[in-house]
Every structure is written in C-alpha cells, then in structure tokens.
Amino acid sequence: MFDELQTLLDLPGMDLALKFAPLVWAMIWIFITVSLWRGGFVDLVEKLTRPRWAGPERVRAVMMLPVRAVMLALVAALAATITTLGIAFNAAVVVGVVQAFSTGG
C-alpha cells in the first residue's frame, strides 16, 4: 500500500499540486461557507425581526447566531477537505494514466 502511495507522490508535478492544495482548500472552504451562510440564518433572523416572537425567543436567537456560524464553518471545512482530497486523488490517477500511456506501458 505504501509503495503505491509513494509511486503517486513521485509522479511529475505532484510537488506542485501539494503546494497548491492549501490554496485550493481555502477557496473551496470560502465558497461552501458563503453558500451555507447565505441561507443558514433565515430562521434566526426571522425570530429577531418578526413581532410575533417574544423576548426570550429573540435572546435565544441572538445567542444561537455565533454557534450556528461556527457550526456551518466547520461543516464547510469538512466538505472542503473531502473535496480537495478527491480532486487530488483524481488528479493523481489522471497523471498516472497519462504517464503510463506516454511510457508505452
């Protein structure tokens, strides 16, 4: 198993891919976080702005805002990690196939 992993890491261009992986992860994380935050606070904002909600419900909504923000950011980080690993694996497979065809084997 480790020999196969070492073979993938020794492929040409893999060092460049590993250098750019954190940048790709950060871009994916920001995109997913913004997407989740865009609709992730609708119920809490409704409790703050609608007059039918009483004071204790509004206080709970205010206290829940930072918790929800952190929770959505952590979910986005997990999704970005899985996505980046998937992209890296697929890129390694494609590079391996291209190298196999170019060497004739």
Protein topology:
Elements: H1 2-9, H2 14-39, H3 42-49, H4 55-103
Q: Number of helical segments?
A: 4
In which range does the helix fraction lie? over 70%
In terms of per-residue confidence, which ranges show pLDDT below 50 for 5 or more consecutive residues?
Answer: none
Into which percentage range does the β-strand content fall?
under 5%
**C-alpha Rg (nearest Å):** 22 Å
Q: Assign an overall shape.
A: rod-shaped
Structural class: mainly alpha
Sequence of secondary-structure elements: HHHH
How many individual β-strands? 0
The profile of the biggest β sheet is:
none
Average pLDDT level: 85
Instruction: Please give the alpha-carbon distance between the first and last residues.
Output: 21 Å
